[in-house]
Amino acid sequence: MDFLQNLVIPATTQHLLMIKVILGLAMIIFLPFFGMLLGGTAFSVIFNSYGRKHRNQMFIRFAKDIIDKLAINRFVGVGLGVIPLLSITFCYAQLLFGQSVISISLLLVATLLLTIAVSFVYSYQSTFQIESLIETFKDISGLDKHELETKVPEEVSDYEFDLLNTNSNAGLWGLVLLIITALFFAGGTSIALNSDRYQDFQNIAQMFLSGSTFINFLMLIVFSVTASGVAILFFFFGWQGGMHDMEKEYADFARNIGGKIAFTGAALLPVFLFMSFFFIPNVALSGSVFVFTGLAFIALLMLCNFVYAVIRNSDTKYIAAAFYVFMLSAIFLVLKNDSAFGIAVQKNLIVTNQKALELEAQKKSKTVNVSGVNGEEIYNRLCVACHKFDVKLVGPPYQQTIPTYNGDVKKLSSYILNPVKKNPEYPPMPAQPLKPKEADAVAQYLIEKVSGKK
Ligand code: HEC
Predict the structure, then answer these.
(1) Domains (ranges, CATH) in the chain?
(2) Is the pTM value of this prediction over 0.90?
(3) Is residue 48's pLDDT more than 80?
(4) Is 5 near ligand 1, meaning CB less than 6 Å away?
Protein backbone atom coordinates (compact mmCIF):
# COMPACT_ATOMS: atom_id res chain seq x y z
CA MET A 1 0.00 0.00 0.00
CA ASP A 2 2.83 2.35 -0.82
CA PHE A 3 0.60 4.25 -3.18
CA LEU A 4 -0.60 6.45 -0.34
CA GLN A 5 3.01 7.36 0.34
CA ASN A 6 3.29 8.35 -3.30
CA LEU A 7 0.17 10.50 -3.09
CA VAL A 8 1.50 12.63 -0.28
CA ILE A 9 4.42 15.00 -0.74
CA PRO A 10 6.65 16.20 2.07
CA ALA A 11 5.06 19.13 3.86
CA THR A 12 6.70 22.21 5.35
CA THR A 13 6.40 23.07 9.03
CA GLN A 14 3.37 25.32 8.53
CA HIS A 15 1.60 22.63 6.54
CA LEU A 16 2.46 20.03 9.14
CA LEU A 17 0.92 22.20 11.82
CA MET A 18 -2.26 22.45 9.79
CA ILE A 19 -2.26 18.69 9.28
CA LYS A 20 -1.99 18.17 13.05
CA VAL A 21 -4.99 20.43 13.61
CA ILE A 22 -7.02 18.57 10.98
CA LEU A 23 -5.99 15.27 12.54
CA GLY A 24 -7.18 16.44 15.97
CA LEU A 25 -10.55 17.59 14.63
CA ALA A 26 -11.10 14.44 12.59
CA MET A 27 -10.32 12.33 15.66
CA ILE A 28 -12.71 14.33 17.86
CA ILE A 29 -15.48 13.70 15.34
CA PHE A 30 -14.56 10.11 14.60
CA LEU A 31 -13.94 8.59 18.03
CA PRO A 32 -17.22 9.40 19.81
CA PHE A 33 -19.28 8.50 16.75
CA PHE A 34 -17.39 5.27 16.14
CA GLY A 35 -17.84 4.38 19.81
CA MET A 36 -21.57 5.01 19.55
CA LEU A 37 -21.82 3.00 16.35
CA LEU A 38 -19.86 0.01 17.63
CA GLY A 39 -21.47 -0.05 21.07
CA GLY A 40 -24.93 0.72 19.67
CA THR A 41 -24.71 -2.07 17.11
CA ALA A 42 -23.46 -4.52 19.74
CA PHE A 43 -26.23 -3.79 22.24
CA SER A 44 -28.89 -3.62 19.56
CA VAL A 45 -27.84 -7.03 18.19
CA ILE A 46 -27.75 -8.53 21.69
CA PHE A 47 -31.18 -7.22 22.71
CA ASN A 48 -32.64 -8.09 19.33
CA SER A 49 -31.54 -11.72 19.37
CA TYR A 50 -32.51 -12.16 23.01
CA GLY A 51 -35.85 -10.49 22.41
CA ARG A 52 -36.69 -12.71 19.42
CA LYS A 53 -35.64 -15.88 21.18
CA HIS A 54 -37.79 -15.13 24.21
CA ARG A 55 -40.51 -13.28 22.28
CA ASN A 56 -39.95 -10.20 24.38
CA GLN A 57 -41.38 -7.19 22.52
CA MET A 58 -39.80 -4.66 24.83
CA PHE A 59 -36.30 -5.97 24.11
CA ILE A 60 -36.94 -5.87 20.36
CA ARG A 61 -38.25 -2.34 20.63
CA PHE A 62 -35.18 -1.35 22.64
CA ALA A 63 -32.91 -2.91 19.98
CA LYS A 64 -34.69 -0.92 17.28
CA ASP A 65 -34.57 2.34 19.21
CA ILE A 66 -30.86 1.94 20.00
CA ILE A 67 -29.84 1.43 16.40
CA ASP A 68 -32.17 4.23 15.26
CA LYS A 69 -30.88 6.78 17.74
CA LEU A 70 -27.20 5.86 17.89
CA ALA A 71 -26.41 5.07 14.27
CA ILE A 72 -28.73 7.91 13.12
CA ASN A 73 -28.66 7.40 9.34
CA ARG A 74 -26.48 6.35 6.42
CA PHE A 75 -25.29 9.88 5.65
CA VAL A 76 -24.22 10.45 9.20
CA GLY A 77 -22.43 7.10 9.13
CA VAL A 78 -20.39 8.19 6.13
CA GLY A 79 -19.99 11.81 7.26
CA LEU A 80 -18.98 11.18 10.86
CA GLY A 81 -17.41 7.75 10.39
CA VAL A 82 -15.90 6.92 7.01
CA ILE A 83 -14.80 10.39 5.90
CA PRO A 84 -13.10 11.37 9.19
CA LEU A 85 -11.28 8.02 9.27
CA LEU A 86 -10.09 8.57 5.72
CA SER A 87 -8.81 12.03 6.69
CA ILE A 88 -7.10 10.54 9.73
CA THR A 89 -5.37 8.03 7.45
CA PHE A 90 -4.14 10.80 5.14
CA CYS A 91 -2.90 12.88 8.07
CA TYR A 92 -0.96 9.88 9.39
CA ALA A 93 0.49 9.31 5.92
CA GLN A 94 1.64 12.93 5.86
CA LEU A 95 3.13 12.90 9.34
CA LEU A 96 4.86 9.57 8.71
CA PHE A 97 6.21 10.73 5.36
CA GLY A 98 9.23 8.73 4.24
CA GLN A 99 8.96 6.21 7.10
CA SER A 100 8.35 2.61 6.28
CA VAL A 101 5.93 1.29 8.90
CA ILE A 102 2.60 -0.54 8.63
CA SER A 103 0.55 2.10 10.43
CA ILE A 104 -0.80 3.67 7.28
CA SER A 105 -1.74 0.32 5.73
CA LEU A 106 -3.53 -0.66 8.95
CA LEU A 107 -5.51 2.58 8.97
CA LEU A 108 -6.36 2.16 5.33
CA VAL A 109 -7.66 -1.36 5.97
CA ALA A 110 -9.65 0.03 8.90
CA THR A 111 -11.25 2.60 6.58
CA LEU A 112 -12.21 -0.07 4.04
CA LEU A 113 -13.64 -2.35 6.73
CA LEU A 114 -15.60 0.53 8.23
CA THR A 115 -17.12 1.31 4.84
CA ILE A 116 -18.41 -2.24 4.48
CA ALA A 117 -19.50 -2.36 8.13
CA VAL A 118 -21.49 0.84 7.72
CA SER A 119 -23.44 -0.62 4.81
CA PHE A 120 -24.35 -3.69 6.89
CA VAL A 121 -25.32 -1.66 9.94
CA TYR A 122 -27.69 0.59 8.02
CA SER A 123 -29.31 -2.28 6.19
CA TYR A 124 -29.84 -3.86 9.64
CA GLN A 125 -31.36 -0.57 10.76
CA SER A 126 -33.72 -0.38 7.80
CA THR A 127 -35.08 -3.93 8.26
CA PHE A 128 -36.60 -2.79 11.57
CA GLN A 129 -38.44 -0.01 9.79
CA ILE A 130 -39.81 -2.27 7.07
CA GLU A 131 -40.83 -4.79 9.68
CA SER A 132 -42.79 -2.24 11.66
CA LEU A 133 -44.41 -1.12 8.43
CA ILE A 134 -45.63 -4.66 7.79
CA GLU A 135 -46.88 -4.87 11.38
CA THR A 136 -48.83 -1.65 10.95
CA PHE A 137 -50.56 -3.00 7.84
CA LYS A 138 -51.45 -6.20 9.66
CA ASP A 139 -52.91 -4.15 12.51
CA ILE A 140 -55.12 -1.98 10.36
CA SER A 141 -56.24 -4.93 8.25
CA GLY A 142 -58.36 -6.02 11.20
CA LEU A 143 -57.69 -9.71 10.54
CA ASP A 144 -57.23 -12.06 13.47
CA LYS A 145 -54.25 -14.35 13.89
CA HIS A 146 -55.72 -17.33 12.10
CA GLU A 147 -56.96 -15.24 9.18
CA LEU A 148 -53.57 -13.61 8.87
CA GLU A 149 -51.95 -17.01 8.53
CA THR A 150 -54.29 -18.13 5.78
CA LYS A 151 -55.13 -14.92 3.93
CA VAL A 152 -51.78 -13.18 3.69
CA PRO A 153 -50.25 -14.13 0.31
CA GLU A 154 -47.27 -16.44 0.42
CA GLU A 155 -44.90 -13.86 -1.10
CA VAL A 156 -45.55 -11.54 1.80
CA SER A 157 -44.88 -14.11 4.49
CA ASP A 158 -41.81 -15.30 2.58
CA TYR A 159 -40.60 -11.75 2.39
CA GLU A 160 -41.16 -11.28 6.08
CA PHE A 161 -39.17 -14.42 6.79
CA ASP A 162 -36.27 -13.22 4.62
CA LEU A 163 -36.39 -9.86 6.29
CA LEU A 164 -35.93 -11.36 9.73
CA ASN A 165 -32.98 -13.34 8.41
CA THR A 166 -31.35 -10.29 6.86
CA ASN A 167 -31.97 -8.43 10.05
CA SER A 168 -30.02 -10.79 12.25
CA ASN A 169 -27.28 -11.50 9.67
CA ALA A 170 -26.65 -7.90 8.69
CA GLY A 171 -26.51 -6.83 12.32
CA LEU A 172 -24.04 -9.55 13.21
CA TRP A 173 -21.83 -8.93 10.17
CA GLY A 174 -21.83 -5.22 10.84
CA LEU A 175 -20.80 -5.86 14.43
CA VAL A 176 -17.98 -8.27 13.55
CA LEU A 177 -16.59 -5.86 10.94
CA LEU A 178 -16.76 -2.94 13.36
CA ILE A 179 -14.79 -4.92 15.94
CA ILE A 180 -12.10 -5.76 13.37
CA THR A 181 -12.08 -2.10 12.32
CA ALA A 182 -11.40 -1.19 15.95
CA LEU A 183 -8.48 -3.65 16.05
CA PHE A 184 -6.85 -2.22 12.93
CA PHE A 185 -7.44 1.34 14.08
CA ALA A 186 -5.87 0.57 17.45
CA GLY A 187 -2.96 -1.15 15.67
CA GLY A 188 -2.31 1.73 13.28
CA THR A 189 -2.42 4.43 15.93
CA SER A 190 -0.49 2.48 18.60
CA ILE A 191 2.35 1.34 16.36
CA ALA A 192 2.81 4.87 15.03
CA LEU A 193 3.97 5.88 18.53
CA ASN A 194 6.94 3.47 18.45
CA SER A 195 9.07 5.64 16.22
CA ASP A 196 12.26 3.97 17.48
CA ARG A 197 11.01 0.54 16.45
CA TYR A 198 9.37 1.11 13.06
CA GLN A 199 11.68 -1.50 11.48
CA ASP A 200 9.99 -4.15 13.67
CA PHE A 201 6.60 -3.44 12.13
CA GLN A 202 6.85 -4.16 8.44
CA ASN A 203 3.97 -6.50 7.71
CA ILE A 204 0.43 -6.66 8.97
CA ALA A 205 0.94 -9.84 11.00
CA GLN A 206 3.45 -8.00 13.15
CA MET A 207 0.60 -5.91 14.47
CA PHE A 208 -0.20 -8.82 16.76
CA LEU A 209 3.23 -8.57 18.37
CA SER A 210 2.48 -5.12 19.70
CA GLY A 211 1.23 -5.15 23.28
CA SER A 212 0.00 -1.59 23.10
CA THR A 213 -2.24 -2.54 20.18
CA PHE A 214 -4.12 -4.99 22.38
CA ILE A 215 -4.45 -2.67 25.33
CA ASN A 216 -5.64 0.16 23.11
CA PHE A 217 -8.03 -2.16 21.29
CA LEU A 218 -9.60 -3.23 24.60
CA MET A 219 -9.69 0.39 25.67
CA LEU A 220 -11.50 1.29 22.44
CA ILE A 221 -14.07 -1.43 23.14
CA VAL A 222 -14.62 -0.14 26.68
CA PHE A 223 -14.79 3.38 25.29
CA SER A 224 -17.50 2.19 22.87
CA VAL A 225 -19.47 0.67 25.73
CA THR A 226 -19.28 3.98 27.59
CA ALA A 227 -20.14 6.01 24.48
CA SER A 228 -23.19 3.90 23.70
CA GLY A 229 -24.44 3.91 27.31
CA VAL A 230 -24.12 7.68 27.57
CA ALA A 231 -25.69 8.09 24.12
CA ILE A 232 -28.65 5.87 25.04
CA LEU A 233 -29.31 8.07 28.05
CA PHE A 234 -28.80 11.26 26.09
CA PHE A 235 -30.76 10.47 22.94
CA PHE A 236 -33.62 8.75 24.77
CA PHE A 237 -34.00 11.34 27.53
CA GLY A 238 -31.86 14.42 27.03
CA TRP A 239 -31.75 15.47 23.40
CA GLN A 240 -34.66 17.78 22.47
CA GLY A 241 -36.57 16.75 25.57
CA GLY A 242 -36.12 13.04 24.88
CA MET A 243 -38.37 10.55 23.07
CA HIS A 244 -42.00 11.34 23.68
CA ASP A 245 -43.76 8.06 22.92
CA MET A 246 -42.31 6.08 25.84
CA GLU A 247 -44.59 4.57 28.47
CA LYS A 248 -43.26 4.65 32.00
CA GLU A 249 -42.36 0.98 32.05
CA TYR A 250 -40.28 1.23 28.87
CA ALA A 251 -38.67 4.51 29.94
CA ASP A 252 -37.63 3.00 33.28
CA PHE A 253 -36.23 -0.03 31.51
CA ALA A 254 -34.25 2.06 29.02
CA ARG A 255 -32.88 4.41 31.65
CA ASN A 256 -31.87 1.56 33.89
CA ILE A 257 -30.08 -0.40 31.15
CA GLY A 258 -28.52 2.68 29.55
CA GLY A 259 -27.32 3.86 32.95
CA LYS A 260 -25.77 0.50 33.79
CA ILE A 261 -23.99 0.28 30.44
CA ALA A 262 -22.64 3.81 30.81
CA PHE A 263 -21.53 3.22 34.38
CA THR A 264 -19.75 -0.05 33.61
CA GLY A 265 -17.85 1.62 30.78
CA ALA A 266 -17.06 4.80 32.70
CA ALA A 267 -15.77 2.84 35.69
CA LEU A 268 -13.55 0.54 33.56
CA LEU A 269 -12.19 3.22 31.27
CA PRO A 270 -9.85 4.86 33.83
CA VAL A 271 -8.31 1.44 34.49
CA PHE A 272 -7.53 0.99 30.80
CA LEU A 273 -6.36 4.57 30.52
CA PHE A 274 -3.89 3.83 33.30
CA MET A 275 -2.69 0.61 31.64
CA SER A 276 -2.37 2.11 28.18
CA PHE A 277 -0.32 4.91 29.70
CA PHE A 278 2.38 2.39 30.62
CA PHE A 279 2.49 1.19 27.06
CA ILE A 280 3.29 4.63 25.66
CA PRO A 281 6.92 4.29 24.48
CA ASN A 282 9.46 6.73 25.90
CA VAL A 283 9.96 8.38 22.54
CA ALA A 284 6.34 9.56 22.69
CA LEU A 285 6.24 10.87 26.25
CA SER A 286 6.10 14.53 27.15
CA GLY A 287 4.60 16.83 29.74
CA SER A 288 1.47 17.40 27.69
CA VAL A 289 0.84 13.65 27.46
CA PHE A 290 0.84 13.53 31.28
CA VAL A 291 -1.43 16.54 31.56
CA PHE A 292 -4.03 15.29 29.05
CA THR A 293 -4.03 11.82 30.58
CA GLY A 294 -4.68 13.44 33.96
CA LEU A 295 -7.48 15.61 32.60
CA ALA A 296 -9.11 12.64 30.85
CA PHE A 297 -8.90 10.76 34.13
CA ILE A 298 -10.66 13.54 36.04
CA ALA A 299 -13.35 13.90 33.37
CA LEU A 300 -14.02 10.16 33.52
CA LEU A 301 -14.40 10.23 37.31
CA MET A 302 -16.89 13.07 36.95
CA LEU A 303 -18.72 11.03 34.34
CA CYS A 304 -18.97 8.11 36.78
CA ASN A 305 -20.52 10.47 39.32
CA PHE A 306 -23.14 11.87 36.97
CA VAL A 307 -24.12 8.46 35.64
CA TYR A 308 -24.29 7.09 39.16
CA ALA A 309 -26.64 9.93 40.08
CA VAL A 310 -28.88 8.98 37.15
CA ILE A 311 -29.07 5.32 38.19
CA ARG A 312 -29.39 6.06 41.87
CA ASN A 313 -32.16 8.66 41.73
CA SER A 314 -33.79 7.45 38.49
CA ASP A 315 -33.51 11.06 37.64
CA THR A 316 -32.79 12.41 34.17
CA LYS A 317 -31.49 15.77 35.24
CA TYR A 318 -27.80 14.76 35.13
CA ILE A 319 -28.00 13.14 31.71
CA ALA A 320 -27.00 16.18 29.66
CA ALA A 321 -24.12 16.86 32.06
CA ALA A 322 -22.97 13.25 31.68
CA PHE A 323 -23.03 13.59 27.90
CA TYR A 324 -20.94 16.78 27.88
CA VAL A 325 -18.43 15.44 30.37
CA PHE A 326 -18.11 12.33 28.23
CA MET A 327 -17.38 14.43 25.15
CA LEU A 328 -14.82 16.34 27.19
CA SER A 329 -13.06 13.16 28.24
CA ALA A 330 -13.07 12.02 24.59
CA ILE A 331 -11.41 15.31 23.61
CA PHE A 332 -8.72 14.86 26.28
CA LEU A 333 -8.09 11.30 25.12
CA VAL A 334 -7.64 12.53 21.56
CA LEU A 335 -5.31 15.33 22.66
CA LYS A 336 -3.28 12.89 24.71
CA ASN A 337 -2.88 10.58 21.74
CA ASP A 338 -2.12 13.33 19.26
CA SER A 339 0.51 14.93 21.43
CA ALA A 340 2.17 11.55 22.01
CA PHE A 341 2.17 10.97 18.25
CA GLY A 342 3.52 14.47 17.64
CA ILE A 343 6.47 13.85 19.97
CA ALA A 344 7.14 10.42 18.48
CA VAL A 345 7.45 11.75 14.94
CA GLN A 346 9.11 15.05 15.81
CA LYS A 347 12.45 14.06 14.30
CA ASN A 348 10.78 12.80 11.19
CA LEU A 349 8.91 16.07 10.82
CA ILE A 350 12.14 18.07 10.89
CA VAL A 351 13.55 15.89 8.13
CA THR A 352 10.30 16.15 6.20
CA ASN A 353 10.32 19.93 6.44
CA GLN A 354 13.90 19.95 5.13
CA LYS A 355 12.90 17.78 2.18
CA ALA A 356 9.92 20.00 1.44
CA LEU A 357 12.07 23.11 1.41
CA GLU A 358 14.61 21.47 -0.89
CA LEU A 359 11.85 20.36 -3.21
CA GLU A 360 10.45 23.87 -3.30
CA ALA A 361 13.87 25.40 -4.04
CA GLN A 362 14.41 22.90 -6.82
CA LYS A 363 11.03 23.64 -8.30
CA LYS A 364 11.70 27.35 -8.21
CA SER A 365 15.00 27.06 -10.05
CA LYS A 366 13.45 24.87 -12.68
CA THR A 367 10.61 27.18 -13.44
CA VAL A 368 12.59 29.54 -15.66
CA ASN A 369 10.59 30.26 -18.75
CA VAL A 370 12.38 28.77 -21.74
CA SER A 371 9.46 28.37 -24.09
CA GLY A 372 10.18 29.15 -27.73
CA VAL A 373 13.91 28.48 -27.40
CA ASN A 374 15.40 25.11 -28.17
CA GLY A 375 18.23 24.28 -25.76
CA GLU A 376 19.26 21.14 -27.62
CA GLU A 377 19.66 23.03 -30.87
CA ILE A 378 21.91 25.65 -29.21
CA TYR A 379 23.99 22.90 -27.66
CA ASN A 380 24.49 21.24 -31.04
CA ARG A 381 25.33 24.56 -32.69
CA LEU A 382 27.68 26.09 -30.11
CA CYS A 383 28.91 23.72 -27.46
CA VAL A 384 29.52 20.42 -29.26
CA ALA A 385 32.81 21.72 -30.62
CA CYS A 386 34.32 21.70 -27.14
CA HIS A 387 32.02 19.51 -24.96
CA LYS A 388 30.70 16.01 -24.89
CA PHE A 389 28.69 14.46 -22.10
CA ASP A 390 30.97 11.58 -21.29
CA VAL A 391 34.43 12.34 -22.60
CA LYS A 392 36.90 15.14 -22.25
CA LEU A 393 37.26 17.40 -25.32
CA VAL A 394 38.55 20.95 -25.17
CA GLY A 395 36.33 21.40 -22.14
CA PRO A 396 35.44 18.92 -19.38
CA PRO A 397 32.69 16.28 -19.87
CA TYR A 398 29.28 17.55 -18.75
CA GLN A 399 28.66 14.50 -16.62
CA GLN A 400 31.41 15.74 -14.35
CA THR A 401 30.57 19.42 -14.20
CA ILE A 402 26.77 19.75 -14.50
CA PRO A 403 25.89 17.84 -11.27
CA THR A 404 27.88 20.40 -9.25
CA TYR A 405 25.12 22.91 -10.09
CA ASN A 406 22.52 20.88 -8.16
CA GLY A 407 19.77 21.56 -10.65
CA ASP A 408 20.15 25.33 -10.37
CA VAL A 409 19.37 26.56 -13.89
CA LYS A 410 20.06 30.24 -13.11
CA LYS A 411 23.50 29.57 -11.69
CA LEU A 412 24.52 27.47 -14.68
CA SER A 413 23.21 29.92 -17.26
CA SER A 414 25.06 32.79 -15.65
CA TYR A 415 28.28 30.74 -15.86
CA ILE A 416 27.65 30.07 -19.56
CA LEU A 417 27.14 33.77 -20.25
CA ASN A 418 30.09 34.78 -18.15
CA PRO A 419 32.58 31.93 -17.69
CA VAL A 420 35.08 32.35 -14.87
CA LYS A 421 38.27 30.37 -14.61
CA LYS A 422 37.56 27.09 -12.84
CA ASN A 423 39.84 24.17 -13.47
CA PRO A 424 43.60 24.75 -13.95
CA GLU A 425 43.81 21.64 -16.17
CA TYR A 426 41.74 23.39 -18.84
CA PRO A 427 42.12 26.56 -20.82
CA PRO A 428 39.53 29.22 -20.00
CA MET A 429 36.16 28.89 -21.69
CA PRO A 430 35.27 31.75 -24.03
CA ALA A 431 32.05 33.63 -23.27
CA GLN A 432 29.20 32.39 -25.44
CA PRO A 433 27.29 34.66 -27.80
CA LEU A 434 23.87 33.94 -26.28
CA LYS A 435 20.89 35.93 -25.06
CA PRO A 436 20.00 35.29 -21.40
CA LYS A 437 16.92 33.33 -22.40
CA GLU A 438 18.96 31.11 -24.72
CA ALA A 439 21.50 30.50 -21.98
CA ASP A 440 18.65 29.48 -19.66
CA ALA A 441 17.34 27.08 -22.28
CA VAL A 442 20.66 25.37 -22.88
CA ALA A 443 21.32 25.21 -19.13
CA GLN A 444 17.94 23.59 -18.54
CA TYR A 445 18.55 21.16 -21.39
CA LEU A 446 21.94 20.11 -19.99
CA ILE A 447 20.60 19.65 -16.43
CA GLU A 448 17.71 17.51 -17.61
CA LYS A 449 19.89 15.50 -19.93
CA VAL A 450 22.50 14.74 -17.25
CA SER A 451 19.87 13.82 -14.61
CA GLY A 452 18.37 11.40 -17.15
CA LYS A 453 15.09 13.25 -17.61
CA LYS A 454 15.54 13.79 -21.33
C1 HEC B 1 35.89 26.91 -27.38
C2 HEC B 1 35.55 25.81 -26.55
C3 HEC B 1 34.32 25.88 -25.74
C4 HEC B 1 33.04 26.13 -26.17
C5 HEC B 1 32.53 26.46 -27.53
C6 HEC B 1 32.19 25.95 -24.99
N7 HEC B 1 32.91 25.64 -23.88
FE8 HEC B 1 32.26 25.25 -22.02
N9 HEC B 1 34.16 24.98 -21.36
C10 HEC B 1 35.28 25.08 -22.15
C11 HEC B 1 36.47 24.95 -21.33
C12 HEC B 1 37.89 25.00 -21.79
C13 HEC B 1 36.01 24.76 -20.02
C14 HEC B 1 36.83 24.58 -18.73
C15 HEC B 1 36.94 25.96 -18.08
C16 HEC B 1 37.53 25.94 -16.73
O17 HEC B 1 37.55 24.87 -16.06
O18 HEC B 1 37.91 27.04 -16.27
C19 HEC B 1 34.54 24.76 -20.09
C20 HEC B 1 33.68 24.55 -18.96
C21 HEC B 1 32.35 24.49 -19.09
C22 HEC B 1 31.53 24.12 -18.04
C23 HEC B 1 31.97 23.69 -16.63
C24 HEC B 1 32.00 24.83 -15.67
C25 HEC B 1 32.41 24.41 -14.27
O26 HEC B 1 31.73 24.83 -13.35
O27 HEC B 1 33.37 23.67 -14.14
C28 HEC B 1 30.24 24.16 -18.49
C29 HEC B 1 28.99 23.85 -17.71
C30 HEC B 1 30.29 24.59 -19.85
N31 HEC B 1 31.58 24.78 -20.20
C32 HEC B 1 29.19 24.79 -20.62
C33 HEC B 1 29.26 25.18 -21.98
C34 HEC B 1 28.12 25.44 -22.83
C35 HEC B 1 26.65 25.26 -22.37
C36 HEC B 1 28.56 25.77 -24.02
C37 HEC B 1 27.70 26.10 -25.24
C38 HEC B 1 26.75 27.16 -25.11
C39 HEC B 1 29.97 25.77 -23.95
N40 HEC B 1 30.39 25.42 -22.69
C41 HEC B 1 30.79 26.09 -24.99
C42 HEC B 1 35.33 25.29 -23.49
C43 HEC B 1 34.23 25.60 -24.30
Answers:
(1) 3-355 (no CATH), 368-450 (1.10.760.10)
(2) no
(3) yes
(4) no
